[in-house]
Amino acid sequence: MPTVLQIDGFMVRILTNDHEPAHVHVVRAGGEAKIRLGLKGEAPELLRISKGMTDREAAKAYGIVTRSHLKNRFWAVAQNRFCEWNESDQMQQACKTAF
């Protein structure tokens, strides 16, 4: 699971060969938040918080992804990588229309 961004002890990771929707896993000290990447100008969406992450940490994780998503071209690269790693016909069609 490659780490694509690390800030304040939070590691933003993308699983290769993962499922839709395009998302990242933000990990910190045994906890994890799963955050969907926004498509075509949409804001990211918090999908799930594991038991090991507090609500405050999840909010910070969401903020990291949102700020990075809106300010950096980096997320376009991350989304393209997600599509490259997921080669099913259904995923490729979704990637063509979403990104």
Would you write up a description of this structure?
By secondary structure, this protein is α+β, with helices and mostly antiparallel strands. The chain has one domain (3-98). It is 39% helix and 26% strand. The protein is built from three helices and five strands; from the N terminus they run E-E-E-E-E-H-H-H. It has a five-stranded antiparallel β-sheet with strand order 1-2-3-4-5. Strand 4 and strand 5 (45-49) form a beta hairpin. It is globular. It starts with a strand and ends with a helix. The mean pLDDT is 78.
Query: Approximately how much beta-strand content do the residues carry?
Result: 25-35%
Biggest pleated sheet: 5 strands, antiparallel
Whole-number total of structural domains: 1
The oligomeric state is: single chain
Strand order of the largest sheet: 1-2-3-4-5
E-strand count: 5
Indicate the mean pLDDT.
78
What class do helices, strands and sheet pairing give? alpha+beta
Shape descriptor: globular
The number of helical segments is 3
Give the topology, please.
Blueprint: E1 3-7, E2 10-13, E3 23-28, E4 31-36, E5 45-49, H1 55-71, H2 74-85, H3 89-98
Antiparallel strand pairs: 1-2, 2-3, 3-4, 4-5
